[in-house]
Design goal:
This protein is of the alpha/beta class. It is built from eight helices and eight strands; from the N terminus they run ααααββββαβααβββα. It folds into two domains: 108 residues, no CATH class; 125 residues, ABC-type transport auxiliary lipoprotein component (Rossmann fold), CATH 3.40.50.10610. Strands 3, 4, 5, 6, 7 and 8 form a six-stranded mixed sheet that branches.
Length: 273
């Protein structure tokens, strides 16, 4: 029976992954992957649970409740997709395969020649075409979401970058969910808030629902409103408003994303993995 890779070989492979172009800009996922690899190598997989990961990787307080805050499940979905994409493109010739469990949060390791199963949703690299993350496959139970640009309603119209960042964070977060398909931002951007017809959205984007919202500002306080609208009948499925200190930009992004994920979970058969 062939032996698996040694710990040194696994750690060298981990360095290759973290140094790749697709991972170099993902500090949080890099930290997550490093933690799961090192913990799995120690054989301490019992500690790879949502609560412990929330504290160790995402700096959550002792009061962290995974049932209320899905950050570990959401980021685990992103991590799986990132690994699949890496091995389909940049790492296709790497000697070691690091795999993140489909259930749970442990990692397994094997030599490339022992890995006979192709990666899920393989991506074919073309130097003339930008590489994108693999799409969720067609199957029953998948909900398609379009994320429309958030309106910058601040007095000076100077929060455009924040609005774009929020839409980008929502796209990344929702794409990681196994039963959610997200319309590309380029396709969604041609629809302006309040100036579109739901039937046109449904026929053009094949979307089930749209996410849209607005950002207002008073002094150093931001007020973010978001809503999830059914494309089939135009009804508002969920709406939320929150007010934040202007300096908490990343926290705002994460909080809005978590609220929308929770709303989707209650309205559609969304699987956080």
């Amino acid at each position: 029976m062939a032996q698996g890779p040694t710990p040194d070989e696994v750690l060298l492979q981990l360095k290759r992954i973290l140094a790749s172009s697709s991972w170099s800009g993902s500090a949080r996922l890099s930290r997550f992957l490093t933690h799961t690899v090192q913990t799995s190598l120690r054989g301490d997989t019992d500690s790879l649970n949502q609560y412990a990961i929330g504290l160790e990787v995402f700096d959550k307080p002792d009061s962290f409740d995974p049932n209320l805050d899905p950050i570990v499940r959401v980021e685990a979905g992103r991590l799986r997709r990132m690994l699949e994409l890496y091995y389909a493109v940049e790492g296709k010739d790497d000697p070691i395969r690091i795999r993140f469990a489909n259930r749970g949060y442990a990692t397994t390791f094997m030599h490339a020649e022992a890995s006979t199963a192709p990666p899920a949703n393989p991506v074919v690299a073309d130097p003339q075409v930008p590489v994108i993350a693999p799409a969720v496959p067609e199957r029953s139970g998948v909900v398609t979401i379009a994320i429309f640009p958030f309106d910058d309603l601040t007095p000076d119209r100077d929060e455009g970058a924040f609005c774009d960042g929020l839409a980008a964070e929502l796209t990344t977060t929702l794409t990681a969910l196994e039963t959610v398909r997200v319309v590309s931002r380029r396709a969604a951007q041609r629809f302006q808030r309040g100036a579109y017809d739901f039937k046109e959205v449904q026929s053009s984007l094949q979307a089930d629902a749209v996410i849209e919202g607005s950002v207002r500002k008073f002094q150093e306080r931001l007020r973010i409103s978001a809503e999830l609208n059914s494309v089939r009948d135009g009804f508002v499925l969920w709406a939320g408003t929150s007010t934040w200190n202007h300096r908490d930009l990343l926290l705002i992004h994460e909080s809005i994303c978590r609220a929308i994920v929770d709303a989707l979970q209650s309205l559609f058969p969304v699987d956080h993995q």
